[in-house]
Amino acid sequence: MRNNQDINERVESIHAVSNIKNLKFKYWNACDLKKPADILSCFCMDDVYINFEDFGIFYSAKAMVKKYELNSCHDHLLEQHAGKNEIIKLLSSNEASGFWSLSYNLIDTLKNINLYITGTYEDLYVRDENNNWLIKETVFKKISSMYRSLSSGQCSNPRISRSLGGKKII
Predict the structure, then answer these.
(1) What is the pLDDT of residue 167?
(2) Please, which residues have CB within 8 angstroms of residue 47's CB and are 6 or more apart in sequence?
(3) CA atoms within a 13 Å half-sphere pointing along the CA-CB vector of 110
(4) For the chain: N or C, fewer Cβ within 10 A?
(5) Cβ atoms of residues 126 and 94 within 8 Å
(6) What Cα–Cα distance (Å) separates residue 119 from each residue in 81, 89, 163?
(7) For residue 152, what pLDDT band results from cuts at 50, 70 and 90?
(8) Any bridge partners for residue 79, and if so which?
């Protein structure tokens, strides 16, 4: 009997980790496709903590999505979030932590620039009453960012920095 219980627990753990990975990919895909409602559906509705450094700190997913809509939902902004190297730890049957590496690429066709950012996400996930995993806390920490001009058909004057405030021209 104990072996069946162990197997069932392992299967449930694998299923939970898979669902959490799918949730995070759903979130990034919704960001890339400019789908605010889908972004919002990835978060708990109440009592969240979202810290996206330069973009802001939020205690409401609705407030974060509202700012996202104002700043990012434009046809001239082409985004790609590429998450990888995830480490998901189940803390209980209804709570998990996640650590992800991110490579983010933005092309602004209006300003004719390319922004490339690398960083990490540290997340806390919870399972809701419908057995769905949701993001409860997420903290993005930037490792690097690089601006490049896309004028004249080639990249020129890349700017590299840890934060958007201090750019170094190389």
Answers:
(1) 43
(2) 59, 136
(3) 6
(4) N
(5) yes
(6) 11, 20, 11
(7) low
(8) 106
Phi/psi region, residue 122 (left: phi>0; alpha: psi -120 to 50; beta: rest), is beta
CB of 23 within 8 A of CB of 135? yes
CA distance 133 to 95: 9
User: Is the pTM of the predicted complex or chain greater than 0.90?
Assistant: no
Nearest 5°: CA angle at 34, between 87 and 144? 50
Instruction: Name the burial class of residue 27, with classes exposed (0-12), middle (13-18) and buried (19+) by CB atoms within 10 angstroms of its CB.
Output: buried
Please state the domain count of the chain: 1
Higher pLDDT, 161 or 46: 46
Q: Where are the alpha helices (DSSP H) in the chain?
A: 2-33, 36-40, 61-72
**What range defines the domain where residue 127 resides?**
2-169
* Domain of residue 84, CATH code: 3.10.450.50
92 band by pLDDT with thresholds 50, 70 and 90:
very high
Element (H or E) spanning 92, and its range? strand 77-92
